Amino acid sequence: MAEASVSMAWYVLRAISGKEAKVKEYIDAEIKNGSLNGNVAQVLIPTEKVVQMRGNKRVVKERSYLPGYVLVEARLVGEIAHTLRNTPNVLGFLPDMKNPEPLREAEVNRILGKVDEIEDDVKDMEIPYVVGEVVKVTEGPFAGFTGAIEKVDEEKKKVTVTVKVFGRSTGLDLGFMQVEKELG
Which H or E run includes 84? Predict the structure, then answer.
């Protein structure tokens, strides 16, 4: 079979649980140094953002929602399957450790669509921010700055926060998930 006639597809590698990042790092390095001859396009660890409340603080963490699995978009020609199967910390392919089967497009879309679901969850959440409330910026270049809410846009799930930067008041438009209530 000619290499050009084989198209890229998504495969699942079974990795030692907790070593998914090492597998991704190793394969990414192999992609970068060209040893896979362009037959591996990308490597993904299926993760999800989890919002937890610790005391009065909102903590956003990223965690693997399919522990022990790494997704690889590849063209399995020549020794590519053998190389991936023998990557450090990899146990083999799914569903059969020896014979890789590509994921169906619907499965790939469901896994990759997890990110969209997370954003939908944010849209559904009730955020009780009010004008005048003091909040701390948690993400972006102004993380750590504290300021007062000047405007709340419930529909867009955004707030306008005024912070002092070098002694001057600066208005920042931030998403609800980029700020947290300041305890005080």
Answer: helix 80-85
- Chain-centroid distance of CA 154 in Å reads 25
Sorted by where each starts, the structural domains of the chain and their CATH numbers stand as: 3-124 (3.30.70.940), 134-181 (2.30.30.30)
The SS3 of residue 170 is strand
- CB neighbourhood size of 40 (10 A): 22
Sign of CA dihedral 82, 87, 90, 91: positive
What value, to the nearest 5°, has the Cα angle with vertex 114 and ends 152 and 106?
140
- For the chain, the residue count is 184
pLDDT tens for each residue of 7-41 = 899 999 999 988 999 999 999 999 999 889 999 99
Residue 1 one-letter amino acid? M
Whether the model clears a pTM of 0.70, i.e. scores above it, the answer is no
The CA distances from residue 33 to 36, 38, 87, in Å, are 8, 10, 15
Question: Which of these, 86, 100, 99, 179, lies nearest to 138 by C-alpha position?
Answer: 179
Nearest to 11 by CA among 111, 89, 78, 118: 111
Residue pointed to by tokens 């965690």: 63
Say which residues have a Cβ less than 8 Å from residue 139's Cβ, sequence separation at least 6. 174, 177, 178
